[in-house]
Amino acid sequence: MRIGVIGYGYWGPNIVRNFHSQDNCQVTLVADHNPKCEERLKKVFPSVGFTTEENQILNSKDIDAVAVVTPVWTHYELAKRALENGKHVFVEKPFTYSVAQGEELIELADRKNLKIMVDHTFLFTGAVRKIKELVDKRELGDLYYYDSLRVNLGLFQHDVNVIWDLAPHDLSIMDYVIAAKPEAVVATGERHLNGVEDVAFITVYFPKHIIAHINVNWLSPVKVRTTLIGGEKKMLVWNDLEVDEKLRIYDKGVSMSTNPSNLHQLLVSYRSGDMWAPQVEQVEALRSETAYFLKCIEENSKPLNDGEAGLRVVRILEAADRSVRSRGEAISL
Ligand SMILES: NC(=O)c1ccc[n+]([C@@H]2O[C@H](COP(=O)([O-])OP(=O)(O)OC[C@H]3O[C@@H](n4cnc5c(N)ncnc54)[C@H](O)[C@@H]3O)[C@@H](O)[C@H]2O)c1
User: Fold this and answer.
1) pLDDT digits (tens, 9 = 90+) for 96-127
2) CB of 74 closer than 6 A to ligand 1?
């Protein structure tokens, strides 16, 4: 598999390194408008070609798949041209800038029998894999909530607000773990510095009373990556900044019943059992994800993080923007 990578800014080098490390794959060309990227690339990968002209990748007969690692507003155009030229596409999160763009790319890829994979990196981390396993095995019981704090100082993006920058991580994790179609979104946010929301709070309503909340912020003095998932049987805390015990499962819960001798009286019992930290696989997520992309192409199988998965995230992002503009109106999905 010969890969061309477009965009060698902050994230691009990780994509190049991980595709480059796969046995059955070769990164043949990297394109970035910024000529200074060439020196950075050549220092690490002297054998990989560099160009400032993305058309050299998009029009190349020697490239089978294109990774789009450029700002969000460029994803659609670059992915579309890659698909039109018969290339599979690995595209950064969030998939596109609008639902309409995402739908068009999915239709184009289907027509051309090509794969789209959206880089929902977290789905390939040991922690999220373990959470998915626990939820699927019903260790947590029926889910009550997903509550995430994803805050830090910067990095300010110019083309998207903090929702489009940071929330795709949680939205893709929720899509994978909760695996239910959300019903509505309520979002609030404020702009302070560069004309886009830099602080935002998003609530997503799912069927069966599952509620999710995501707090994203570029103006936080400290970096926090903590998610709570509460279930009827157990609850977990995922602190992604922990090196060892990223996941802690608490055998805690609450049950309520009515007093048989006084039906107006509620009996509340709190359960506080053991806490345990399961083993979490320590492999680099992008390494697994890039290998999976190559495998899906080779076996002609549907990636779990395909264009549809990307579109489900964009649908919520678009609705969240609408809700923010109306200061928190509930938008049905
Ligand atoms: N999956 C993740 O965890 C993760 C993390 C960070 C960024 N990202 C995503 O990666 C993408 C890039 O983010 P970044 O932080 O690396 O941005 P960046 O601004 O640091 O880098 C983007 C690079 O793309 C180049 N570029 C823009 N348009 C181009 C074009 N048409 N042809 C060639 N080069 C072009 C720019 O010159 C720049 O060097 C974004 O979509 C972002 O959301 C994903």
Assistant:
1) 999 999 999 999 999 999 999 999 999 999 99
2) yes
